Amino acid sequence: MEFWRFDYSMVDVNQLLSSQHDVFMVVMSVVVVFVASLTMLHVTERINSAVYTLRRRLWITSGAFVMGIGIWAMHFIGMLAFKLQIPVHFDIEMTLISILPAILGCSVFLTQLTKETFSKLELLNSGCCLAVGIGLMHFLGMEAIEANALMRYQLSHFIFTLVLAVVLSYLSLYVYFCIGKKITDYRFRLGAALLFAVSTSTVHYVAMHGTFFYATGVEDTLLIEGFFTQVQLSFLIAGGCTTLILLLLIATLVDKRFEGVKHLADGYVRAIIDNSAEGIITINAQGLVMSFNPTAERTFGYSASEIIGKNINLLMAENMRSAHDEYLKKSDIHEPRIFNQSRDLKALKKDGSLFPIELNVSPMNMAGEKIFIGILHDISERKKQEQLLKENRERFQRLTELSSDWIWETDSEQKISYLSDSFHRLTGRPVHEVLGSKRQQVIWYNLDDKDSDWDKYSETLNSHQPLRNFKLSLRDYDGKLKYTTISGKPVFNAEGEFQGYQGTGTDITELTKARKDAEKANNSKSEFLSSMSHELRTPLNAILGFAQLLEDDSLEPLSKDQSESVQYILKSGNHLLTLINDILDLSKIESGNIALLLENLVVNDLLDECLLLIQPFAGSHAISVMQANRLDDTAIITADITRIKQVILNLLSNAIKYNSKKGKVTLSCEFMENHKLRIAIKDTGEGIPADKQSKLFLPFERLGAENSEIEGTGIGLVVCKDLMEKMHGTIGFESKVGEGSSFWVEVPLGVDDKQETQPIEEQITKQHEHVAKLKSTILFIEDNPANIRLIEKVVSRYQGLSLISAHTAELGISLAGSEKPSIILMDINLPGMNPKEALAALKNNPETSSIPVMAIGESVSENEIKRGISAGFEQYLSKPIHLSEVDEVIKKLIKLDSDRR
């Protein structure tokens, strides 16, 4: 600035140029500096919140630059608002130089604003620096004016402007420091920014008021090149400065938002650290503790104030302290030996006790400083559980070694994942060779092996169902077969996904061998009984057969004494036959070889037949038998007709035999809630003592009656009980001494199949009506003359029937071809040709292939009967032959004769 600007001696006062200001431009200048002031306040807030020095300096520099630009922009927009009577131009170099004082003054101003404390002298010095900066900026900017006029300042006005600048700068600083730091209301900030804007604008326009321009009378020859026009300069200043100010304002707002997020994140992190179940400790590169969260306080017994600033080795065991500091000095931030992996260590509490911890250390750089964050937790309880688990595992291992059972486990793919040592003792195969194998590679199976449940086992495993005592076979190391039972349960995870099986296996090789030996012995017993049956039934067949003929001979009736003798023969023979049948029935039931045909039976017909059959026996004992109630004819049960009659007749027989003299037996029926029918037989006998009732269903137990005249074997009720269970029924009794006993059976109810049954009486009547019209021949192939004589006697009683006999199978085949009999009866124990071979010969001959062949034998084995029926026999008759069985043969003849007709 030239000092002659104050000298008026060289100017013509009459050449004073008039001037004026554009109001709109003046307001614009104030707005620009107001925005700059508001931005400066935000920058000040960012400076105060900055933690790091570099960050603070960056904000001070950017804030001073933008604030200086804002003040400078206010000045030149104001200059553009100043209108003279002559053209005015601005020198660009001087214009740019004028920016520097404003920026320097604002930097001092911002630096002062960021101080926590200050003195009044410091505040005054800062105000003076800002005022000087603004003043220099103003007057240097005035020197940039290029016009054909002389510019002069009024000295008194110039001094007043500088003093005003100092006062207003001081006032602005005071408002910021003394009031602004206590009041955070945003409206106050707007007021403070407006105060600073008005202050700087006032200094400018007061200074302009003391500036005068005088015309020189020289024609304007200034070139436009190298200078800005007023329009260009206004756009440049307004656009550029506003952009810079707004960018900085946006930067401060974004930074504030980020800082808010950071504070929130820090709060979250602090809350997480403070409430974490893990102990969290932060140390610096020198090993000094920087933070110590509450869990760490509880874990070690130290408070945070006691440990922060101390060396971390205070919490370490003695043997680790010396090496720890070296680790920190030499450590690389990515060294895997120590960092970023969990380690189990011993730590030291405040009371001096050592305890186990799990520690994970993570290094990180924070503002150029290396720090280490340690996360730890007390694993004392875990160590106890691990020790307990180890002891339990060892105990389990010892138990499995002592157990004869072996323990197994499979994965989700049915591969074996665990086997106990007992498996090795059973098979001799090393366990490690079997692990990972499929179950099919370990278990030997044979589809024809009755002792193996392989199909059901595979089905159960594939459907993830529990295994219960499945019988399977294994091959030991020497190839020998071992039998075992498998039990186990499927394992599922928390999401319900199948993980595999866990279970046990039991060696039942010896048990299986013993069972097979027992079955073999039982089969031998059955064969023996069957053979004995043949030997006993052969003479019984003749004895009972001829006794029946003598008793029923109407042409030569017996005398009274003879009749009594025959009755005694029949009675003894039947008793012997009952004994044989009971023993054979019990043997078949025990061996599981008895076969039942369950069918729908009409209850009334069944009971009528049983009462009809038992009446003669009851009459001989002077016992009355009566039926208490009769069901509807639609009542049906499901049972084997032969076996249910056997059970009912046995109970009726016992009720008669063990009754009192001239007593009575009552038969009654009752529907039960379990969809069964109860058939009860009550007697008026002496009853069964309570101490003997538990022995009633034991084999050969007669409860003391063996010393009485009552006949019996002691196995009838045993057979009845087993038969009822096989027919899905039950048997039971109630008895009181002196009141009698009531035995009952419960039989499943059947479903009415709507098939009408023909009364027995009508069948018998129709049979006898048709017999007279028959012209049929029966061929009987038998080597025992007594049996041939018996059948001859039976057949001779029916008109129209004739009998031819053959004592060998070969002769019988020849007679069958020549005589064409209606039915062939063949003994299956003939000498010479095997009965199956004889049957095959008859079936292969077209002339005899259609003739029904019925087998007769002493054996009543169900397997024997099945084999005979499957071979082609029409029916199986057992010796001794009863007249009722002959009636069945006659029914066959009736049906054949009806078909032919």
In short:
The chain has 901 residues and is an alpha+beta fold. Helix content is 51%, strand content 19%.
Secondary-structure topology with pairs:
Layout: E1 20-21, H1 23-49, H2 53-81, E2 82-83, E3 89-91, H3 92-97, H4 99-113, H5 120-143, E4 145-146, E5 149-153, H6 155-180, H7 186-209, E6 211-215, E7 227-228, H8 230-275, E8 279-284, E9 289-292, H9 294-300, H10 304-307, H11 318-330, E10 342-348, E11 354-366, E12 369-378, H12 380-402, E13 406-410, E14 416-419, H13 421-427, H14 431-434, H15 439-442, E15 443-444, H16 454-462, E16 467-475, E17 481-492, E18 498-507, H17 509-551, H18 560-591, E19 599-602, H19 603-620, E20 624-627, E21 636-639, H20 641-657, E22 664-671, E23 676-683, H21 716-726, E24 730-736, E25 740-748, H22 760-771, E26 776-781, H23 785-795, E27 801-806, H24 809-819, E28 823-827, H25 835-844, E29 853-857, H26 862-871, E30 875-878, H27 883-900
Parallel strand pairs: 20-22, 26-27, 26-28, 28-29, 29-30
Antiparallel strand pairs: 1-2, 3-4, 3-7, 5-6, 8-9, 8-12, 10-11, 11-12, 13-14, 13-18, 15-16, 16-17, 17-18, 19-21, 22-23, 23-25, 24-25
Helix pairs in contact: 1-2, 1-7, 1-8, 2-4, 2-5, 2-7, 2-8, 4-5, 5-6, 6-7, 17-18, 17-23, 18-21, 19-20, 20-21, 24-25
